[in-house]
Write a structure and sequence with these properties.
Elements (H helix, E strand, L loop, with lengths): L3 H10 L4 E5 L2 E5 H17 L7 E5 L4 H12 L3 E4 L6 H11 L3 E4 L1 H4 L2 H4 L6 E4 L3 H6 L16 E6 L9 E5 H15 L7 E3 L7 H4 L1 H6 L3 E4 L7 H11 L2 E5 L1 H14 L6 E6 L6 H11 L3 E7 L2 E8 L1 H5 L6 H5 L4 E2 L3 E6 L12 E7 L5 E2 L3 H7 E2 L2 E10 L5 E6 L4 E3 L2 E3 L1 H8 L5 E11 L3 E10 L7 H9 L10 E4 L13 H14 L1
Parallel strand pairs: 1-10, 3-4, 3-5, 5-6, 9-10, 9-11, 11-12, 12-13, 25-26
Antiparallel strand pairs: 1-2, 7-8, 8-18, 13-14, 14-15, 16-17, 17-20, 19-20, 20-21, 22-23, 24-25
Helix pairs in contact: 1-2, 2-3, 11-12, 12-13
Length: 511
């Protein structure tokens, strides 16, 4: 079914309910929100844009982001959200690859986009111009265009850290399954709740809008348009009952500010964390400082937010004999999927053995946009091969190790960087760490750690070496430690290990 129906129903049920906020200022009720989306759809229809056509969104976070998305769906078209922090040439490439008929842009990030566009048939509409204001007042479509379960609604482009970005085709059915999984596995949503968009609305934060539209909740975009820990902690008590999606690095920063200011997260109901490794030491600290507000999910663009979940009870449990092991996991398979751990040939592995995580179910993508080779490689006999390595315990909890490409093979033995990182992070003077493999003629690869320490730390290699030898096998400990001021990260807070490996190659060339 068309996701725009959820907005239309909420608007019909409670047209005066509070809908869109910029900071603490309300900018639209549900009746106004739905009317604007229907008018944008009408304007798109006048341009000949309808069912199946791709419409890109290259905007920074704003309340109009939701108006644009629902306008696209109302018209039956496919939303192609593009991360607003990408270079304009990268954004133009995605628009060209998607064969977008039109792109909604915001001037702050796309002011020179027209100069690099290669697709002349893709019209650009700035949400800062009068043309967009006119679209919000155009003759509305009377109802959302009918869409079926397998009709594409969202075309999501992967980050491209391992090559050219691929367009993940998400259907109406995929989205509905993800929504169902949220309600059952992650959190209930009440009409008095709010969702805060502090992470890019083109990705996890934005795709979580559906549950809150269905329940007629408030949608809040901070004045900064992004993540600012101080702003969030000040805004939350004024709004109340806030749910938000956050990458682990964002949680770490939020907790650090809360500790420094003596705040505990008042007004924050649920923080769903995902998008990278949440280390055990960090989540223990987060719960201690801010209480039972955290839920973990594991998903990827190809199965959005819907592979596993570690519920609030597991995150806060300290009494179970294996509480720490569970807290270090990504939880149990969500209700809409099957999850297995397999070897390279697809054979299931016994509990406790590390293999690739594969998943099958209704949230799994249709395939990659016009890329049959990648689709066949990733979707095999109905199973999505995630590229993530991990193991399952006897109770079904899945613990991730690393991406398969990040595994280090040293002297014929497998070393999973996360295991080493978890140990190093137990040292009170280690703030962040990333472990990668360095090519070596004798050993194949050497284990190398990049370490960010706390201010005024006098930590040295010897102390970290002792820590590792006390906790993990000798062959797993880093051969070298590089102390750095910060780790390179992408726009979502993920550490760029590819860049660290390239840095090692450059360092070797200088010797």
């Amino acid at each position: 079914m068309n996701p725009a129906l959820w907005l239309a129903r909420s608007a019909k049920r409670a047209p005066m309910a509070q809908a869109l906020f910029h900071g603490t200022q309300q900018v639209a009720t549900y009746g106004e929100f739905a009317a604007q989306a229907a008018s944008v759809a009408g304007a798109l229809a006048e341009r000949g844009i309808g069912k199946g056509d791709r419409v890109a969104i290259f905007m920074s976070n704003s309340p109009d982001y939701l108006v644009v998305m629902y306008g696209i769906w109302f018209a039956g078209a496919v939303a192609v959200p593009i991360n607003g922090k990408l270079h304009i040439r990268e954004a133009a490439w995605i628009m060209d690859n998607a064969e977008a008929s039109l792109a909604f842009i915001s001037d702050d990030i796309a002011h020179d986009l027209a100069c690099v566009m290669t697709r002349e048939s893709c019209a650009l509409v700035s949400v800062n111009d009068q043309a967009f204001a006119a679209m919000k007042e155009a003759s509305p479509l009377p109802a959302p265009v009918s869409l079926d379960r397998d009709d594409m609604a969202w075309l999501f482009y992967t980050s491209g850290t391992t090559g050219t970005p691929k367009g993940v085709m998400m259907s109406c059915g995929n989205i509905s399954a993800m929504v169902m999984g949220y309600f059952i596995e992650v959190d209930d949503v009440e009409t008095t709740d709010s969702i805060l968009y502090a992470a890019p609305m083109s990705h996890g934060a934005g795709i979580y809008n559906f549950m809150f539209v269905m329940r007629g909740c408030r949608h809040v975009v901070p004045l900064s348009g992004g993540f600012d820990a101080h702003e969030i902690l000040e805004l939350a008590p004024q709004i109340g009952n806030i749910a938000m999606f956050a990458a682990p690095t964002m949680v770490r920063r939020l907790v650090d500010v809360a500790k420094h200011t003596g705040q505990t997260g008042e007004g924050l109901k649920t923080i769903v964390y995902a998008g990278g490794p949440m280390y055990l030491a960090d989540i223990l600290d987060a719960v201690e400082v801010m209480g039972p507000r955290f839920v973990q999910i594991y998903g990827q663009g190809e199965c959005p937010m819907a592979i596993t979940a570690l519920g609030r009870a597991d995150v806060t449990d300290r009494a179970h004999p294996r509480a720490m092991e569970r807290l270090a996991s990504v939880g149990l398979a969500q209700c809409m999927v099957e999850v297995r751990i397999v070897d390279e040939k697809g054979k299931g592995l016994p509990n406790g053995e590390i293999g690739e995580i594969v998943v099958k179910g209704s949230p799994v993508m249709l395939g990659y946009w016009r890329n049959p080779e990648a689709t066949v490689q990733t979707l095999r006999d109905g199973w999505l091969w995630t590229g993530d390595m991990g193991f399952m315990d006897d109770d079904g909890y899945i613990t991730m190790q690393d991406r398969s490409k990040d595994m280090i093979i040293s002297g014929g033995s497998n070393v999973y960087p996360r295991e080493v990182e978890e140990v190093l992070l137990t040292h009170e003077e280690v703030r962040e760490v990333a472990v990668v493999g360095q090519v070596d003629e004798e050993w194949g690869e050497l284990v190398v750690a990049f370490v960010v320490t706390t201010a005024d730390s006098k930590l040295d290699d010897k102390a970290l070496d002792h820590l590792c030898l006390d906790n993990i096998a000798r062959f797993k400990r880093p051969k070298f430690y590089h102390f750095v001021d910060e780790l390179p990260k992408n726009n979502y807070g993920k550490v760029l290990k590819t860049e660290l490996r390239e840095r090692l190659v450059a360092m070797a060339g200088e010797e």
